[in-house]
Amino acid sequence: MRRALDGQQPYAEFSEELKVADAEGHGKLVARLYIAARGDWRAAAWLLSRKYPDLWGDQIQVKIEDGLKQILDIVEHVCSPEEFSRVLKALAAKDSGAAPPDQADTGRIH
Q1: Which residues have CB under 8 Å from 32's CB, separation 6+?
Q2: Which of 9, 53, 83, 93 could form a disulfide with 98 if both were Cys (CB 3.0 to 4.6 A apart)?
């Protein structure tokens, strides 16, 4: 790779041909997705999501994680360290499938 970046032949030429072939392959997969959308488009979509995850991968999980981080930042800001620790423990228990901490221990009035 370094030789290609330095412009050494035949590495630079091969690297350029590889980029062209990759771009052509990407174009063919996009075209296939449009054609396949008339019937079963899932195979082409799967290939695109695996080969080009930044362009075609699941973005939903990233958005959820970003939103959750923002919420936890706010909760941490408004809660005492002890309250925030209880929130994190309750979330961890819920995520692991364990029984949540007793509601009486949360300090909430029901």
Answers
A1: 44
A2: 93
**7-36 pLDDT, tens per residue?**
889 999 999 999 999 999 999 988 887 787
Domain check: are 82 and 52 in the same one?
no
Same domain (yes/no): 12, 46: yes
Q: What is the pLDDT of residues 57-80, one digit of tens each?
A: 876 666 777 888 889 999 999 999
Single-letter amino acid, residue 104: A
For the chain, give the number of residues: 110
Are residues 12 and 37 both part of a single domain?
yes
Among 49, 47, 46, residue whose Cα is nearest residue 58: 49
Q: Give me the DSSP letters along 44-101.
A: HHHHHHHH-HHHHS--HHHHHHHHHHHHHHHHHHHS-HHHHHHHHHHHHHHHHTPPPP
The parent domain of residue 101 ranges over 60-106
